[in-house]
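Why do we bother with a discrete structure alphabet at all? Because it lets us treat a fold like text: something you can write down, compare, and reason about line by line. To make this less abstract, here is a complete entry for Fe2OG dioxygenase domain-containing protein. Read it the way you would read a sentence in a foreign language you are learning: slowly, and without expecting to understand everything at once.
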Amino acid sequence: METKQHDIPIPIIDLAPQDLGEVAPHVHRAFKEFGFAYFKNHGVPETLISEAFQWSAKFFALPQEIKEKTPRPLERWKPRGYSGIGLEKTSQDIFQTDKAANKEFIPDCKESYEMGSELNTRIVNIWPDEQDIAGFRDFFTHFYSVCYEAEVKLLKVFALSLGLEESHLVQFHSPRRNQLRILHYPPVQTALLRQGKAERTGAHTDFGTITMLFQDHVGGLEMEETGQPGKFVPVPYVPGTVVVNAGDLLMRWTNDEYKSALHRVGIAGVNKGQGADEMTERRYSIPYFVTPDDGVLVDCLPSCHGPDRPKRYEPVDSSTYISMRLEAIYR
């Protein structure tokens, strides 16, 4: 049920057993130590994942003027639509002066398109015209629903890993509030990345409950090594798995029992050029962000605090927290 590859620090957890209670101890160990794990037999078919990457590449290959027909809303808390290269800065510092923000603003060298549940009437999807990319909407509506089914299975095993009823976390997570994102990282000069003049995705934590990440063979994902601040280690592509990491709200729910680890996209898939000619390889990834429903009060879970273990966090409204973090990303 749990394995490790010699060059990968985090475990690979098998969700195949029908009794999720057998898996729960492995989940507890992984997320207490790393905040990350690979999961196999997660429920999203490999053929469907491959098709999702094909649709992603097809979308980002559209002419720029077509992609810009689905712009991300001006309201920063609405994660929908298309964002072009340089419009986003992944930020971990949500409270900082304008001077500091300007000094640290190195845009991410990526473009993205974001969507969510068709049931969400507060934050509606901004789909491309059917004539521009026929079948895109139908495919990703289906893909989103399959990801939600996998999410439910994961939330059940997370609850069991914390000594709770398996339905405890599921009750706070309908399909309405989650976010599906397709990302394209075009080639960029490695010299700019090494000199700090450009970034792919800067170091950050995710701010929801958990994130399911599908990445291509290029890799590039890195996480901060446990107990060694500032040192990042690769989280490479492993066929047949999805990478799952804990977000800030799960860390708050568990009273820091589970880590919300810093992670970033570094330099990977470099070509054989030299100097200014050395470029990164084109990269695609598809994260599915699992977020509590609007209005959920995130407070320490009953199994994660007590007389000898006081609460480290005040209760927080999930919607308010998510909106605050989204405001920090787009400037």
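What the structure line is telling us, in plain words: The mean pLDDT is 88. The longest strand covers residues 283-290.
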